[in-house]
Design goal:
With 121 residues, this protein is mainly beta. Helices cover 9% and strands 23% of the residues.
C-alpha cells in the first residue's frame, strides 16, 4: 500500500470516526451503498453518507476527490478578471477489512461536497 500523504489524514480520520459510530446519520431512514464507480455531486445543502458494502471486504477502495474552482475576481483594470484558486485533487487508496488501519465493511463514508466559488466584482 502507498504511503499516505498528510492531506489524507483528515479524510481517513473522518472515515474512522464514522466507523466507530461517533458521526453517523440516517438520510430518509436509510443510507445508500457506495457503488463501485460513479460521481457524487453537491446537493447544495447537506452532506451525503454512504455505506461501504460487506462485499468489498479484502478489496482496495480508491477515491479521487476533486475540489471546485474558486471563482474569479475583477481586478482594478475595468475588464480584467483574475482567477482564484483551482480545485485541488486528492487520491485515496485504503484497504477494506477488519485489521488496524483498514476501513471496516459496513462503515459509513461521509461526503461534504461544496460548490464552485462565486465571482466577485
Amino acid at each position: 500500500m502507498k504511503q499516505l500523504k498528510k492531506y489524507h489524514v483528515p479524510f481517513i480520520l473522518l472515515c474512522y470516526l464514522m466507523n466507530a459510530g461517533l458521526l453517523t446519520a440516517q438520510l430518509n431512514g436509510f443510507l445508500p451503498v457506495l457503488s463501485s464507480s460513479g460521481t457524487i455531486n453537491s446537493n447544495g445543502t447537506y452532506y451525503q453518507d454512504y455505506i461501504i458494502p460487506s462485499s468489498m471486504n479484502g478489496k482496495i477502495l480508491h477515491m479521487t476527490l476533486t475540489g471546485a474552482d474558486g471563482g474569479r475576481v475583477r481586478s482594478s483594470e475595468a475588464q480584467k478578471w483574475n482567477d482564484a484558486g483551482q480545485g485541488a485533487t486528492v487520491e485515496l487508496e485504503a484497504t477494506i477489512g477488519s485489521a488496524a488501519n483498514q476501513i471496516k465493511p459496513g462503515a459509513t463514508v461521509r461526503f461534504i461536497v461544496g460548490l464552485k466559488g462565486v465571482d466577485r466584482t
